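Hi R.,

As promised on Friday, here is the backbone we talked about, encoded as C-alpha coordinates. Could you run it through your design pipeline when you get a chance and send me back a sequence?
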Protein backbone atom coordinates (compact mmCIF):
# COMPACT_ATOMS: atom_id res chain seq x y z
CA UNK A 1 0.00 0.00 0.00
CA UNK A 2 1.12 3.51 -0.72
CA UNK A 3 2.13 5.54 2.35
CA UNK A 4 -0.14 8.43 1.32
CA UNK A 5 -3.36 6.45 1.04
CA UNK A 6 -6.03 7.28 3.66
CA UNK A 7 -5.70 4.19 5.84
CA UNK A 8 -1.96 4.75 6.27
CA UNK A 9 -2.43 8.43 7.08
CA UNK A 10 -5.29 7.73 9.48
CA UNK A 11 -3.42 4.90 11.22
CA UNK A 12 -0.38 7.13 11.73
CA UNK A 13 -2.46 10.03 12.99
CA UNK A 14 -4.30 7.83 15.50
CA UNK A 15 -0.89 6.72 16.79
CA UNK A 16 0.36 10.30 17.08
CA UNK A 17 -2.80 11.55 18.79
CA UNK A 18 -3.11 8.52 21.06
CA UNK A 19 -6.90 8.64 21.18
CA UNK A 20 -9.19 10.78 19.07
CA UNK A 21 -12.62 11.17 17.60
CA UNK A 22 -13.01 10.96 13.80
CA UNK A 23 -13.65 14.73 13.56
CA UNK A 24 -10.31 15.53 15.23
CA UNK A 25 -8.48 13.04 13.00
CA UNK A 26 -10.16 14.51 9.91
CA UNK A 27 -9.28 18.04 11.00
CA UNK A 28 -5.68 17.06 11.65
CA UNK A 29 -5.36 15.43 8.21
CA UNK A 30 -7.47 17.86 6.22
CA UNK A 31 -9.63 14.98 5.00
CA UNK A 32 -13.42 14.70 4.94
CA UNK A 33 -14.75 12.99 8.05
CA UNK A 34 -16.56 10.26 6.05
CA UNK A 35 -13.24 9.25 4.42
CA UNK A 36 -11.60 9.12 7.86
CA UNK A 37 -14.47 7.06 9.29
CA UNK A 38 -14.20 4.61 6.39
CA UNK A 39 -10.44 4.27 6.90
CA UNK A 40 -10.97 3.72 10.64
CA UNK A 41 -13.49 0.96 9.94
CA UNK A 42 -11.06 -0.65 7.48
CA UNK A 43 -8.28 -0.46 10.08
CA UNK A 44 -10.61 -1.86 12.73
CA UNK A 45 -11.41 -4.83 10.48
CA UNK A 46 -7.69 -5.65 10.43
CA UNK A 47 -7.43 -5.24 14.19
CA UNK A 48 -5.24 -2.14 13.91
CA UNK A 49 -7.46 0.26 15.87
CA UNK A 50 -10.16 -0.03 18.49
CA UNK A 51 -13.16 2.16 19.20
CA UNK A 52 -14.23 3.13 22.71
CA UNK A 53 -16.26 6.03 24.12
CA UNK A 54 -16.51 7.80 20.76
CA UNK A 55 -12.79 7.76 20.01
CA UNK A 56 -10.20 5.55 18.39
CA UNK A 57 -6.81 4.28 19.52
CA UNK A 58 -4.18 2.02 17.95
CA UNK A 59 -3.83 -1.60 19.02
CA UNK A 60 -0.43 -3.29 19.40
CA UNK A 61 -1.01 -4.84 16.00
CA UNK A 62 -1.89 -1.40 14.60
CA UNK A 63 1.24 0.17 16.06
CA UNK A 64 3.35 -2.53 14.39
CA UNK A 65 1.54 -2.05 11.06
CA UNK A 66 1.92 1.71 11.31
CA UNK A 67 5.65 1.37 12.02
CA UNK A 68 6.02 -0.87 8.96
CA UNK A 69 4.18 1.61 6.76
CA UNK A 70 6.08 4.63 8.06
CA UNK A 71 9.41 2.83 7.56
CA UNK A 72 8.36 2.19 3.95
CA UNK A 73 7.42 5.87 3.61
CA UNK A 74 10.83 6.96 4.92
CA UNK A 75 12.63 4.61 2.54
CA UNK A 76 10.50 5.59 -0.47
CA UNK A 77 11.19 9.28 0.17
CA UNK A 78 14.85 8.67 1.12
CA UNK A 79 14.00 10.80 4.16
CA UNK A 80 15.41 8.85 7.12
CA UNK A 81 18.60 10.91 7.41
CA UNK A 82 16.78 14.25 7.18
CA UNK A 83 14.10 13.25 9.72
CA UNK A 84 16.76 11.86 12.09
CA UNK A 85 18.68 15.15 11.87
CA UNK A 86 15.50 17.16 12.46
CA UNK A 87 14.65 14.99 15.47
CA UNK A 88 18.16 15.48 16.87
CA UNK A 89 17.72 19.27 16.52
CA UNK A 90 14.23 19.06 18.04
CA UNK A 91 15.40 17.39 21.27
CA UNK A 92 17.10 20.41 22.93
CA UNK A 93 14.12 22.58 21.96
CA UNK A 94 11.82 19.93 23.42
CA UNK A 95 13.67 20.07 26.74
CA UNK A 96 13.17 23.85 26.89
CA UNK A 97 9.49 23.75 25.89
CA UNK A 98 8.65 20.88 28.23
CA UNK A 99 10.40 22.65 31.14
CA UNK A 100 8.54 25.90 30.42
CA UNK A 101 5.20 24.12 30.17
CA UNK A 102 5.84 22.09 33.34
CA UNK A 103 6.74 25.26 35.25
CA UNK A 104 3.59 26.95 33.91
CA UNK A 105 1.43 24.00 34.95
CA UNK A 106 2.97 24.03 38.43
CA UNK A 107 2.17 27.74 38.68
CA UNK A 108 -1.41 27.03 37.64
CA UNK A 109 -1.65 24.40 40.38
CA UNK A 110 0.06 26.59 42.96
CA UNK A 111 2.91 24.08 43.32
CA UNK A 112 6.64 24.71 43.33
CA UNK A 113 8.92 27.32 44.77
CA UNK A 114 9.44 29.74 41.89
CA UNK A 115 6.43 31.32 40.29
CA UNK A 116 6.79 31.51 36.52
CA UNK A 117 4.81 34.25 34.87
CA UNK A 118 2.86 34.20 31.67
CA UNK A 119 5.24 36.66 30.01
CA UNK A 120 8.33 34.54 30.74
CA UNK A 121 6.58 31.40 29.52
CA UNK A 122 5.45 33.02 26.29
CA UNK A 123 8.97 34.37 25.60
CA UNK A 124 10.33 30.81 25.77
CA UNK A 125 7.51 29.49 23.61
CA UNK A 126 7.97 32.24 21.00
CA UNK A 127 11.67 31.37 20.67
CA UNK A 128 10.75 27.73 20.24
CA UNK A 129 8.13 28.72 17.66
CA UNK A 130 10.76 30.60 15.65
CA UNK A 131 12.98 27.52 15.66
CA UNK A 132 9.98 25.34 14.78
CA UNK A 133 9.41 27.29 11.55
CA UNK A 134 12.87 26.32 10.27
CA UNK A 135 12.60 22.76 11.57
CA UNK A 136 9.23 22.22 9.91
CA UNK A 137 10.51 23.57 6.60
CA UNK A 138 13.29 20.97 6.65
CA UNK A 139 10.83 18.19 7.45
CA UNK A 140 8.26 19.24 4.85
CA UNK A 141 10.99 19.26 2.19
CA UNK A 142 11.26 15.47 2.59
CA UNK A 143 7.84 14.49 4.01
CA UNK A 144 5.03 16.98 3.26
CA UNK A 145 2.78 15.43 5.95
CA UNK A 146 4.78 17.34 8.59
CA UNK A 147 3.21 20.61 7.39
CA UNK A 148 1.04 22.52 9.82
CA UNK A 149 2.76 22.18 13.16
CA UNK A 150 4.24 25.69 13.04
CA UNK A 151 0.94 27.22 11.90
CA UNK A 152 -0.95 25.51 14.74
CA UNK A 153 1.71 26.42 17.33
CA UNK A 154 1.76 30.06 16.19
CA UNK A 155 -2.05 30.21 16.30
CA UNK A 156 -2.03 28.95 19.89
CA UNK A 157 0.67 31.47 20.84
CA UNK A 158 -1.35 34.32 19.35
CA UNK A 159 -4.30 33.49 21.58
CA UNK A 160 -2.21 32.61 24.66
CA UNK A 161 -1.48 36.30 25.28
CA UNK A 162 -5.06 36.82 26.39
CA UNK A 163 -6.25 33.28 27.14
CA UNK A 164 -3.87 31.30 29.35
CA UNK A 165 -5.48 27.94 28.55
CA UNK A 166 -3.82 28.08 25.12
CA UNK A 167 -0.43 27.54 26.75
CA UNK A 168 -0.99 24.01 28.11
CA UNK A 169 -4.70 23.24 27.80
CA UNK A 170 -5.53 19.64 26.97
CA UNK A 171 -8.94 20.43 25.52
CA UNK A 172 -7.64 22.52 22.61
CA UNK A 173 -4.76 22.84 20.16
CA UNK A 174 -2.61 24.53 22.82
CA UNK A 175 1.10 25.23 22.44
CA UNK A 176 1.96 22.23 24.61
CA UNK A 177 -0.42 19.88 22.83
CA UNK A 178 0.85 20.83 19.35
CA UNK A 179 4.46 20.58 20.49
CA UNK A 180 3.86 17.18 22.09
CA UNK A 181 2.17 15.89 18.93
CA UNK A 182 5.20 16.93 16.87
CA UNK A 183 7.50 15.07 19.26
CA UNK A 184 5.30 11.98 19.04
CA UNK A 185 5.15 12.27 15.26
CA UNK A 186 8.95 12.41 15.02
CA UNK A 187 9.43 9.46 17.39
CA UNK A 188 6.77 7.40 15.65
CA UNK A 189 8.18 8.22 12.22
CA UNK A 190 11.62 7.04 13.34
CA UNK A 191 10.23 3.93 15.06
CA UNK A 192 11.34 5.23 18.46
CA UNK A 193 7.90 5.68 20.07
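Update: got your reply. Pasting your designed sequence below so it's all in one thread:
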Amino acid sequence: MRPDEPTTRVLHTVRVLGYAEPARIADRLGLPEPAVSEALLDAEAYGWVRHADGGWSATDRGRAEGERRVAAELDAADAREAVTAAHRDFLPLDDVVEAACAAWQQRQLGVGEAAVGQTETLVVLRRAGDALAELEARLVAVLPRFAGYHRRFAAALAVADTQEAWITGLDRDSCHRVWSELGQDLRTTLGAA
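One thing I noticed while checking it: The two ends are 22 Å apart (CA to CA).

Thanks again,
M.
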